[in-house]
Amino acid sequence: MAEQTTPTLRDHVGRLVDARWFQNAVILVIVLNGVSLGMETYQDRFGHLEAYFRLAEHAFVAFFVVELSLKLWARGWTFFRDPWNWFDLMVVGVALIPSTNGFSVLRLLRILRLLRLISVVPQMRGIVNALFRSLPGLGAVIGVLFVIMYTSAVLGEKLFEDISPEYFGDLGTTLYTLFMLLTTENWPDISDSVTGEAPYAWLYFVVFIVISAFIVLNLIIGVIVTTMEEEFGAERWEEDQQLELRQHEAVLMRIDALAEQVARLSDQVRELGGVPGGGAGSEKEAAGRPE
């Protein structure tokens, strides 16, 4: 029998940081930190609580430092293999920089601690991972969108520069105008500024909005949705594989137990003078024996 090893302190700390209640406590503290930062913006209502806000800030930072220290101790060097742990270190490390001289602006980055909800909540983390995985496909689609917008901007500037210089005065202004058309916000105002003198302009606006806003943007959404399905489908497939493995191991254990029982029964039959697995053949053998 294999000798059982006694759990070390690192093992206990590892079970602590992986416990569900500990993760829920981290989420609660992050939410409370966000509420505190939001209340600080109401100086007219909560200005008299500034001392308490500073005390709460020190408490939140101390909690996050202890949390990351426990994770680092429990997981060792493997802690640095997860990019999300690097993100947590960066967000918490900003709070440890002195808020004096040129570093005072970094204090504004403490609001980034709310983003730690993404690294703590598995569902949010899966969505962000899917977004990063979709970047190669998104890059191609966004490249197509940029080519369409640039071509349309040059064409629009040549056609409507004299008619509506506030929207099509130069290339940069036209690109910004096309971005507003891409969002389909206030596009009638833009089109009305040129259709009075250029009745054919409706064709330019309709074609651009249909291609960019309705086709290319839907392609971007399709790429993201497909990647998310693959991301969460891979997790479900891994869970199914683990379940099948456990079921397979359970069946093998059951078969081994049955094999041991059959072996014991065979030994008992031999001890009683019979032949294991015998039937008619055993009866004939017994009949052929001399009395």
UniProtKB/TrEMBL annotation:
Membrane topology (UniProt): Multi-pass membrane protein
SUPFAM superfamilies: Voltage-gated potassium channels
Record keyword ATP-binding present: no
Chain ranges of the Ion transport domain: 20-230
Keywords annotated in UniProt: Membrane, Transmembrane, Transmembrane helix
Transmembrane intervals: 21-39, 86-109, 130-150, 201-226
Main localization, broad class: membrane
Compartments it resides in: Membrane
Region feature (Disordered): 272-291
Any Pfam family hit: Ion_trans
Compositionally biased region (Basic and acidic residues): 282-291
InterPro entries, alphabetized: Ion_trans_dom, VGCC_Ca_Na, Volt_channel_dom_sf
Membrane among keywords: yes
Protein name: Ion transporter
